[in-house]
């Protein structure tokens, strides 16, 4: 049985590195700004390295700075370890649980096993994946992506700090001594293969709390495609130009955003616009010449993602002709992340753990709405995830909160699932 | 009869001060960037002062730098002069005709009268209104507004250069020696009253060309109200947050913009959004926390402007509740410019000139879509405007164009209207 007080204290103690954005009176009432490979991230990495070595783990660092801590199993088998992975980096206005809980839970599992003298049959360990957030070096799940062969390492190394282009991800790895010697790969010959990957994470959404469940058994992640639309019109005076003579890209974009929502809703999918931009010299009495906006389409089935995209583009073509003299538009595909189905055996191990801890009524099978490192690991080893609720579904925000009880429950489930899978 | 070649050459020669944004091969194929009270505006002002003095005019400058050139009439009456006014400043990406044509035409009228030995009964003259565009010091029709008592002079003096807040309108008036001694007012005791105000301007819209007319007899200006809407929601992950749990201000704003257009259209009014902004840290996979957008509502009748505003706000309230958990919104009124009806006698003088020059079929009575200095002068002296077509209705753009024929025709109409009004 894990030590929930030790888990809670360790988590908040290590959040001293990077604490920001105070919102309340209590010492822990702050968010985090521990951006990947900044000085605080380097500090928590050094602390993590020392802790796992105290437990007798071996530690390997690969060429993306991913940290692999390994505890030998009873059988002294050469098989790749069963990993519990997540990330220690945060958003610039992030919270104390996203990623961090996953690592602290994994460490608590190792501490509990050591303390109680329990040994798994096969090797088990913890992975800290570098730059999961993509908030400082703009590519999310960047280093699990390189490990999985989905992102070329040179492209990842060359990512520039979004505020200081003179700094690259590689230059920061070098500065902190985290450019390891092992290839960032699942290849047994040169890299660091994993036998399985389990990740505990806060849900970051409202489904668990709304359904009054305490554990999410995550069987996959939905697919998503990110488009940037550019709508072209013509500047015109808002006072002197009749509607019939206009080519108004902001009116058209507005209709497109509303239409994309309505289409997605009819398909039980999601379509969201987070960014819209008019030229910086826009003015109240000028019809804009151009508008860009983003479109993020998601659904657990790729075929539905594609159908929603197609219907949106068809609707946009009709909208482009609808008002005045019409507008034109073009678009780019910025991200294409197909749906992922996690490993049945990993999911079964998590379900078994959940059944034992809370019973069927308090857990639910679900699909992750967001991408996670486990989405990439699942391409090269059996993988699955455990979700625990976070307050009001709020995440990527300083007030992000996961109760001590839910942190402990998720960590116990992680332990049971790993033990179950080890037996299996 | 005015000299159309002299008019054309003078206009383009003086556009050497401030020419920018070349778009073609011909020497005159550029736009203008002669922002109010910059060095080029000061140069063209000095040129204008010298030209009117050569014609024997007296020149007065008021405390807003408005320039009043006055030619004595035959009767040596003490009555205020009949003014032909417009402005020499331009937009930062403006054209060669907006405002400039009105001043050059007025000067050509004086030159023609002088050359042909023609004298009006009453004094006539030209007014160059300072900072009509409001592009550098952000208040349009700023100095005719002070003259009309609608804008306090201190507020106008304190306007700051939008790019360099250390510079004010008053400091630039002082630097160029254009802070005159006369009060900026229509008060006969301290200021510079006018007997009438005629303004020739390009239409800046497509109505004249689309109706194949060459002169617009402008009998008033439509009313307009500028609102800024702020829609409040809550940041949320686009992948993990179901529609039902969202408060999405960008979706709501999109529906509001589309609704405002549709409502205005049903009322034969205009409603336009030129600016929309999301926070600078917006991202593709985050529902924005807040959105602001502008709304510009226009109609020749104030009651319709108000009705459209009311219907929009009602519709916005329904939209705010429509999706997910709903959003809230608030708004500010930034500009309230009621509709203006010009003076019947001034309009009749312009109509008489148009009838004589092109006949009834080639002129049309119309309402100005945009605000002009004449909107303010009309509050304190009989006023009206003449519109001539500009190519494709394009204005506030480097390629803005008015043909030599239309420039000449408008100038001739200005001369005839002033003579007609003088007789009247
Ligand atoms: N967890 C997370 O925010 N991943 C980034 C990619 C996504 O938007 O799903
Ligand atoms: N002519 C002009 O652009 N005036 C500014 C105010 C308006 O938008 O009507």
How is the topology of this model organized?
The structure is a homodimer of 424-residue chains.
Chain A: H1 4-14, E1 19-22, E2 30-32, H2 39-54, E3 58-61, E4 67-71, E5 82-86, H3 100-115, E6 124-128, H4 142-147, H5 153-157, H6 169-176, E7 196-202, H7 207-210, E8 215-221, E9 223-232, E10 236-237, H8 249-266, E11 270-272, E12 276-277, E13 286-287, E14 290-299, H9 302-322, E15 328-337, E16 340-341, H10 344-358, E17 363-368, H11 373-377, E18 383-388, H12 404-423
Parallel strand pairs in A: 5-6, 5-7, 7-18, 8-17
Antiparallel strand pairs in A: 1-2, 3-4, 4-6, 8-16, 8-18, 9-14, 9-15, 10-13, 11-14, 12-14
Descriptive overview:
With 424 residues, chain A is α+β, with helices and mostly antiparallel strands. Chain A contains twelve helices and 18 strands. In chain A, the strands form four sheets. In chain A, strands 3, 4, 5, 6, 7, 8, 16, 17 and 18 form a nine-stranded mixed beta sheet that branches. In chain A, strands 9, 11, 12, 14 and 15 form a five-stranded antiparallel beta sheet that branches. Chain A has a two-stranded antiparallel sheet with strand order 1-2. In chain A, strand 3 and strand 4 form a beta hairpin. Chains A and B meet through strand 10, helix 8, strand 12, strand 13 and strand 14 of A and strand 10, helix 8, strand 13 and strand 14 of B. The structure holds N-(aminocarbonyl)-beta-alanine (URP) (2 copies). One N-(aminocarbonyl)-beta-alanine binds at residues 140, 370-372 of chain A.
């Amino acid at each position: 049985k894990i030590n929930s007080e030790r888990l809670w204290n360790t988590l908040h103690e290590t959040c001293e590195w990077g604490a920001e954005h105070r919102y309340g009176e209590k010492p822990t009432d702050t968010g985090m700004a521990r951006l990947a490979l900044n000085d605080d991230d380097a500090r928590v990495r050094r602390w993590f390295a020392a802790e796992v070595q105290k437990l007798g783990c071996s530690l390997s660092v690969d060429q993306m700075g991913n940290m692999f801590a390994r505890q030998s199993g009873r059988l002294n088998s050469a098989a790749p370890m069963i990993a519990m992975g997540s990330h220690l980096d945060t958003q610039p206005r992030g919270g104390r649980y996203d990623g961090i809980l996953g690592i602290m839970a994994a460490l608590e599992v190792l501490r509990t096993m050591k303390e109680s003298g329990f040994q798994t049959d096969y090797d088990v360990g913890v992975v800290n994946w570098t730059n999961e957030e993509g908030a400082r070096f703009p590519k999310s799940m960047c280093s699990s992506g390189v490990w999985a062969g989905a992102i070329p390492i040179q492209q990842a190394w060359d990512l520039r700090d979004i505020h200081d282009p003179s700094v690259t991800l590689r230059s920061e790895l070098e500065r902190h001594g985290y450019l390891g010697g092992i290839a960032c790969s699942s290849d047994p010959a040169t890299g660091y293969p994993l036998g399985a990957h389990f990740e505990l994470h806060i849900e970051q959404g409202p489904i668990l709390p709304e359904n009054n469940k305490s554990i999410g058994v995550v069987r996959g992640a939905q697919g998503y495609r990110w488009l940037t639309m550019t709508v072209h019109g013509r500047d015109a005076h808002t006072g002197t130009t009749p509607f019939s003579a206009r080519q108004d890209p902001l009116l058209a974009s507005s209709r497109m955003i509303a239409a994309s929502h309505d289409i997605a809703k009819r398909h039980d999918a999601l379509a969201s616009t987070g960014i819209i931009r008019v030229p910086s010299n826009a003015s109240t009495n000028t019809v804009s010449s151009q508008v860009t906006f983003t479109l993020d389409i998601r659904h657990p089935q790729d075929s539905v993602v594609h159908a929603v995209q197609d219907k949106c583009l068809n609707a946009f073509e009709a909208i482009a002709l609808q008002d005045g003299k019409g507008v034109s538009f073009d678009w780019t595909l910025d991200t294409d992340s197909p749906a992922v189905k996690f490993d049945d055996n990993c999911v079964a191990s998590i379900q078994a753990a959940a059944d034992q801890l809370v019973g069927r009524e308090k857990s639910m099978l679900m699909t992750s709405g967001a991408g996670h490192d486990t989405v990439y690991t699942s391409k090269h080893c059996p993988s699955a995830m455990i979700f625990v609720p976070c307050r009001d579904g709020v995440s990527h925000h300083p007030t992000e909160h996961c109760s001590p009880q839910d942190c402990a429950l998720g960590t116990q489930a992680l332990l049971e699932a790993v033990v179950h899978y080890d037996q299996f």
